Amino acid sequence: MSLKQVCVLGCGALGTVLANLVANNVSKFPEYKPTVMWYVRSEEFSKQRLVDVIKNNKENPKYAPGISISDKVIVCDDASSVTAAADVILFAYATRHVNEILEVMKQHMKKSVLFVSFSKGLVVPEPNSQAQQKDICLVSEEIQRVTGIEPVVVSGAMTAKGLDKAELCEATIGSRSKEAADEVKRLLETEYLSLTWTTDVITVELCGALKNILSVAAGIVDGLNLGANTKSAIIRLGLYEIDQYCHSMYAKYDTRQSTLLESCGISELFKCILCQSDAMPQLGDDWDVFNLLIGRMMSEPQYAGMTLEQIQQSFNPDYVASGPDTAKKIHAQLNSLHLCEMYPLFTAVHLICSRIVPATMLIPMLRHHPAHR
After folding, report:
1. Which residues have a catalytic role annotated?
2. Residues of the domain holding 192
3. At what angle do helices 201-223 and 227-249 cross, to 10 degrees?
4. Count of structural domains within the chain
5. Annotated binding residue 208
6. Strand 59-60 relative to strand 64-68: parallel, antiparallel, unpaired?
7. Which residues bind NAD(+) (predicted)?
């Protein structure tokens, strides 16, 4: 029997750490090849190709500086060849690049591949798909639509830096197949990383996407100096809206409130909200730090004359906070269904980030929240 090839796609901080982690784990199991292929997309760093910089320096200075790349990681710049070789794909792509890379991958992917998605966010299907342009979907739904393969999803309170430092952390596997979940667990678990499994794939992934909105809300609370009581209320109201969204928008699936108690839910929410919102993000930081900072800056007087795009460009043109983008997509969907009043926190974050209402309107917009009825 031929050995399985594990491949990682995504050259951000998480993709970098996953490549190292899995390269260390595959050596424990005889059914896998001893090296991991890692696709690094075409981009530059210091006027050089990033893939060449990583190969020559055994480090990813653009997204994960200070983390040494294992000799068991084979760095590649050809997505087609990496995809064709893969028996297991670990997919850690920012949502804004998902459509583009899937179009490349679909022509070369094995039908039997185990596809594991770590991407957190919502995507708009390509205009030529059967979905209407106003529709939004989960990354896993887009993966299945484009490739025909149902992916496993992994989400939880684990940051790239925390994984690299071997901090104790947890994550949740969402899969309808126990066999697939067991293989993912075998490839990822370490002495410091524990994983649990649920068949509630939708809630696992939605938690990862929607908590980005709550991170922005927490930053707004900090910027307005509203205190711990308010931030605690934001956490509860946010969880309420996530639960309502899962049940109403994905009613045909077996979404369960208990999944919110897994690492993908409450743990990840605490992880992002406990970050400091007044610290400038560093390379390799989790995206939640950017969402918190954006929320804080949107609510501080010195940035009142700046748009969201101008604020983001002011501290790192390469990084785009996922929270405002997720809030915008959710708002467009809720507005088309006349449901904005049922999700006042999601709505408030979008309107504040769009400069339609001032940040000081956050609390007035939550005064008559459905959770208080």
Report:
1. 211
2. 4-199
3. 150
4. 2
5. no
6. antiparallel
7. 10-15, 160
